[in-house]
Amino acid sequence: MFWPKLPNKQVKEKVFSALSRNLNYREEKILGLPATYLDQEQFYFDAPFLKDAAFLSVLIHNPNHIGCHTYQKGESYFSGTQELEIDLMRICAEEIFGATAGGYDGYVAPGGTEANIQAQWVYRNYFQKEKNAKPHEIALIFSEDVHYSAYKGCNLLGIKAITVSVTENRAWNLQDLEKKLTAAQQAGIKYLIIHLSMGTTMFGSVDTSAPVLEIVRKHNMDYFVHVDAAFGGFIYPFTANSTDLSFKNPEISSITIDGHKMLQAPYGTGIFLCRKGMIEYAQTAEASYVQGTDFTLCGSRSGANAIAVWMILMTHGSDGWKYLMQKLIDRTDHICETLDELGIDYFRHPAMNIVTLKASQVPANIAAKYHLVADNFQHPKWWKIVTMMHVEKNIIDEFLMDLHQSRLK
Ligand SMILES: Cc1ncc(COP(=O)(O)O)c(C=O)c1O
Questions:
Q1: Any idea what DSSP says for residue 99?
Q2: Co-location of 194 and 340 in the same domain
Q3: Ligand 1 binding pocket mutation candidate from 140, 200, 206, 231 (most atoms within 8 A of CB)
Q4: In angstroms, what is the span from residue 211 Cα to ligand 1's centroid?
Q5: Same domain, 90 and 177
Q6: Domain's final residue, options 316, 336, 359
Q7: How far is the CA of 255 from the centre of ligand 1 (A)?
Q8: Rounded mean pLDDT of the chain?
Q9: pLDDT tens digit sequence for 84-143
Q10: pTM above 0.90, yes or no
Q11: Region 314-326: what's the mean pLDDT?
């Protein structure tokens, strides 16, 4: 994995140059588009800082990145900034997730929820079109630690949700998987979408594909595998020695990654990636007034979001990002070492920055003081700590000292 770090000046120049290749509502005769720049009372072009603020400049020019630009040329009006989105997809798919050159499609989605549902939508349509499947013959299968967007998608798409329990170490319970698959087949399920997580929301656990797929294969069902790396996608590939949840694994068909989680990008920067040949199943051919039609759930989307993620990746380079993520792992190690000394039970994946503590061992006032998040705020069984960039050592130490004090009482 390697992409170079660029000096700030060059990052800015590239963004302004991309913007200059877009159609400009201020300078050109644009009568047909139901779109324009941002409100000029609030977001005026003449603000003096704008000449140095590449992201804000794109935001104010307000390019629409509707469509899927890795697939085919989209709206020609905004081809400059679309090119940077295409480069962003290349970095995520090829550099981070091991895809072959050009062997993927993708776009910047509003978030992980849409990217996960987009995957389900693509596969449901594939099964319907190619296998003549009925929605009630298609199921999404996932572990109980899944993000709730999995259920949301099943509800929207009319497909069945199958939840598999987990073991002590948050891995798929393979006996339960076997049981659920047998029951599903008896109930008429013929097609599966397997949802694996690279960093579950509550535990940061990372699924392993091989044991799950070995059992699925025995059941002779058609399936696709989607990886939800919404949380883990910008940390785990940088901190783990290797992963089976990438495009290098021929079993993996699509991946969700969120810029607005670990990458510190603004909200609205989910990323959906799938292998070439699949995005067509989500094409809305009726979108005939959009150049290139549409392949996404959301439709119109701000080009500024893609630019924000691209700028962050360029600012750090792959080595810089790896270093930053390792810093968070070191801080998380420090938390776990102290919890071990205090005899407090927790779950943590060694290459992730989430520590999930048994609620019975954490006084409620400490959980409240440090804004720990519960699995269920009504009846907490677990509290989680997420070592994000703002979680500095001094705050961690204060928390650990409070926990230590509470153990002495
Ligand atoms: C693993 C996982 N997937 C998907 C999502 C949904 O992301 P978003 O809130 O960006 O839609 C989250 C959010 O926390 C998540 O943790």
A1: P
A2: no
A3: 231
A4: 25
A5: yes
A6: 316
A7: 13
A8: 97
A9: 999 999 999 999 999 999 999 999 999 999 999 999 999 999 999 999 999 999 999 999
A10: yes
A11: 98
